[in-house]
Amino acid sequence: MDDNLKAIQRAQAETAIKRLKDHSFETSWFETKEEALQYLKESILHGSSIGVGGSMTLEEMGVIAWLTGNPDYAFLDRYHTDDREKIFHESMNADVYLMSSNAVTLDGCLYNVDGTGNRVAALIYGPKKVYVLCGTNKLVNDVDSAVKRVKEIAAPANNVRLHKDNPCATLGSCMNCMRPTTICNQFVLTRRSGTPNRIHVILINESLGY
Ligand code: SF4
């Protein structure tokens, strides 16, 4: 991302952060993914149990590599298990949950679409602390734009990533399928952090994930 675009994204992030704070979210801002990762390393207490939602942002930030096999934490590792469902349930009671969001609106809301629903369940009523890590590519004007972003970018790209034979994977945009293989079962709009500061949105001035 060039410096001019970064300046615009920074200004948009400032707007989003003001509104997110109004909605009782905790917020942080970093220019780079390395700074954001360092912040997590310094913020999460050693010995904490940590669950994660499926996320290209977490992969690209190096979060998964940091946690895998890390003796300082009880990582509920969804990527190396014979029983992923058990990990998903245990993650609901973890000390900390890490995830991204499909979109963050400039008026201070999160919007997520899930297939299994483990990620949005953890966001809504899971761990006492949830960190939501998002590149500025996830910023959109409002909820309508968030829905559009998921239909035109996030969901089709995730279908390709997951090798799903759903129409969006070949047509490039959502066809509102009702196939058993759809990854779009739960549409969740999070307007506020019901428990103040439980949900901590970390915005990063890079393009991360879809
Ligand atoms: S509803 Fe179906 S077509 Fe639309 S994005 Fe989801 S999986 Fe793709």
Q: What does it look like?
A:
The protein is α/β, with parallel strands linked by helices. The protein has a single domain, classed as Rossmann fold. The chain has a six-stranded parallel beta sheet with strand order 1-10-7-4-2-3. Strand 5 and strand 6 form a beta hairpin. The mean pLDDT is 97. It binds iron/sulfur cluster. The site of iron/sulfur cluster has 13 residues, from helix 7 and helix 8.
Overall pLDDT level: 97
Q: Cα distance, first to last residue?
A: 15 Å
Continuous helix count = 8
Radius of gyration: 16 Å
- Estimate nothing, just give the exact number of structural domains: 1
Cofactors and ligands present? iron/sulfur cluster
Q: What is the topology, as strand order, of the major beta sheet?
A: 1-10-7-4-2-3
Structural class: alpha/beta
At the first level of CATH, the class is: Alpha Beta
State the helical fraction: 25-40%
Share in β-strands: 15-25%
- What is the CATH H-level superfamily? NagB/RpiA/CoA transferase-like
Biggest β-sheet strands, sense, barrel: 6 strands, parallel
Which H/E pattern describes the elements? HEHEHHEHEEEHEEHHEE
Shape: globular
- Do you know the CATH architecture? 3-Layer(aba) Sandwich
Q: Could you say what the CATH topology is called?
A: Rossmann fold
Number of strands: 10
Low-confidence stretches: none
